[in-house]
Amino acid sequence: MNSLAALSLSDLSFSYNSSSEPVLRGISLEVPSGQVTGILGPNGCGKTTLLRLLLGVLHARSGSLLLDGRPHGSFSRRERSQLLGLVPQDEHVPFEFSMLEFVLMGRAPYLGPLEMPREADRQIALAALETVGLTHLLGRPVPNLSGGERQLAIVARALAQAPSILLLDEPTAHLDLSNKGRLLDIMRTLAAEKVTLVFTTHDPNLAASIADQTVLMRHGQILDVGRTEMVLTAAKLSATYGVPVQVFQLEGRRIILLP
Predict the structure, then answer these.
(1) Helix (H) or strand (E) holding 13
(2) Which residues contact 76 (CB under 8 A, 6 or more apart)?
(3) What is the pLDDT of residues 183-216, one digit of tens each?
């Protein structure tokens, strides 16, 4: 395995119970440290399941998963939480946490048992809220937020966690055009700071706009992986989505059109 890989997967397979068909089969992949990896494919191809395996919420039936060169399972939960952060596609918040209280949860991996957040943690949370543009909603209960505002609050919590590897599941799914642009700017800033980013998407244009490496998935398997400009071709995308896909170059940008 490449010593520069933040995450290394070898022949990983997973199913939700022992009698069911595998959701993921023979997944081998290296996620380069300090780069942006996009996992691209149609709905139901196993992208979210793969992300949850990377996080450690799910455990593979077979194969190996290394985190910074060590077996994933050798890290304590606290260690993993300091290294790995997640922005889920959606999250139910059952309690009336204020925006600030919710974002402060990102500091939990750095606090002792029953320890309350300190002023330094509060300042980190406030900076994260400013980054996502939600400072004006500081005291708003999270359940009262719109879908887009709640998604940005989840991003702010992940920023407050300050992980070295950030996993994002369909991160722009609930955002309007303005906030999609804001999130892409945040991701580019994190990438410039050498945070390793891994995101899932069904939108090849999102991968084209930001990913250094792109993974193409279909039916629980990896069809191709490599530098984004080499992977996002009409032939490979057509095979991934099962429909004809067109790829154009416009003013130096790759534009992908699905039927």
Answers:
(1) strand 5-14
(2) none
(3) 999 999 999 999 999 999 989 999 999 999 999 9
Alpha carbons 226 and 258: distance in angstroms, whole number: 21
Tally of structural domains, the chain: 1
Whole-model pTM? 0.93
Is 257 inside any structural domain? Answer: no
Q: How many whole angstroms separate alpha carbon 138 and alpha carbon 120?
A: 17
In which domain, by residue range, is 205 found? 5-232
| CATH number for position 197 | 3.40.50.300
Amino acid in position 67: L
- Angstrom distance (rounded) from CA 44 to CA 26: 17
Domain assignment of residue 253, yes or no: no
Residue 250: C-alpha distances to residues 166, 230, 237, 239 (Å): 30, 17, 18, 23
> Quick check: is 208 in a domain?
yes
